[in-house]
Write a structure and sequence with these properties.
Length: 323
């Protein structure tokens, strides 16, 4: 915490020197403690110039999602009040589920620079190279029926698409239920996992994977025609720290609406506007069975309404939908 305040002072001085005395007075800590924090920050990759009289000057920040930095200015009420960070991990969803089972607070975020066993929907692998994406999982503890959990999937898709749009200016569409698409190619996937009893949700983990700064070479050959990254679309690398904050704020805003007020209908109106499936034909696959139909609507519970070849209305709550 104090280290984060020292970092904040250095960042706020905008390239100027901050004296050791000022830091030690503001935090009510010794000059040795200040020196210790400065050294820790240097070890984390911050380039800091030290001058015996002038103090400390921040020269450069590493492209790492250190909680000390990404939590600065994060004015959320629930999401990201606690952030756990890993340079490398198997899967942030697995870690988040472990922490949730051990009673962690609602809104905790697990974020990693790299996942060695990143998981996608339907048992697929999720490629998560180091420093190239946002690989994060959020723990929620909503007081809802298990049947309603699908709403959190749609809410997250809407929140993350809004976040990416606000942060980058790109237009982000949603492919039901929660793939985010830019220019027809997938840029983000969301994996929702729930622990529940018959009539009670224990926790929900929302795993978000954004192809932020992946280059064309980072995308596996078999996915090249289906997936892209923000950097590929924009032509430059995005500030992952900023993007992380946009995502946390947007999820916080929509989740707070969801639990505090009955604004679900309004969220669904916005979701439908962004969803590219409505009014188009789609192939619905579940297991070995595939069929084609016309998507006519998404109901307020988040189910896809599809007219099959016999003109019969089907309500789809899970499965793979391709267009
Ligand atoms: C999909 O198949 O579209 C969902 C992909 C979800 C990937 C994210 S990355 C962070 C979190 N940890 C995981 O192992 N998976 C999710």
């Amino acid at each position: 915490m104090s280290r984060s305040v020292v970092l904040n002072m250095l960042l706020s001085s905008q390239g100027g020197f901050v004296s050791g005395e000022d830091i030690s007075r503001s935090l009510n800590i010794s000059r040795t403690a200040v020196w210790k924090y400065i050294n820790e920050l240097k070890e984390m990759g911050y380039v800091i110039e030290s001058h015996s009289r002038a103090g400390y000057k921040l020269i450069a920040c590493p492209d790492v999602l250190w909680p000390d930095e990404i939590s600065l200015g994060l004015d959320t009420s629930i999401i990201g009040r606690e952030i756990v960070h890993f340079l490398s991990i198997g899967s942030t969803n697995d870690k988040a589920k472990e922490l949730a089972n051990n009673g962690c607070r609602e809104g905790l975020i697990v974020v990693a620079e790299e996942q060695t066993g990143g998981r996608g929907r339907l048992g697929r692998q999720w490629v998560s190279p180091q420093y190239r994406g946002i690989w994060m999982s959020v723990v929620l503890r909503p007081d809802i029926q298990p049947m309603e959990a699908q709403k959190l999937t749609l809410l997250s898709a809407l929140a993350v698409s809004n976040a990416i749009e606000e942060c980058t200016g790109l237009k982000v569409d949603i492919k039901w239920p929660n793939d985010l698409v830019v220019s027809g190619k997938k840029i983000c996937g969301i994996l929702t996992e729930m622990s529940a009893e018959v009539d009670k949700v224990n926790h929900v983990v929302i795993g978000i994977g954004i192809n932020a700064n992946m280059s064309a070479e980072d995308i596996p050959d078999e996915l090249k025609d289906k997936a892209t990254s923000l950097a590929i679309e924009l032509g430059y690398n995005v500030d992952r720290k900023n993007l992380f904050r946009y995502i946390s704020r947007n999820i916080d805003e929509l989740y707070t609406c969801f639990i505090n007020a009955n604004q679900w209908h309004d969220l669904m109106v916005e979701y439908r506007e962004k969803c590219i499936n409505v009014g188009r034909r789609a192939v619905i696959s579940k297991g070995d069975v595939s069929w084609e139909g016309m998507v006519t609507d998404i109901d307020d519970d988040g189910a896809l309404i599809v007219l099959d070849g016999h003109g019969e209305k089907k309500r789809i709550i899970s499965g793979d939908v391709s267009i």
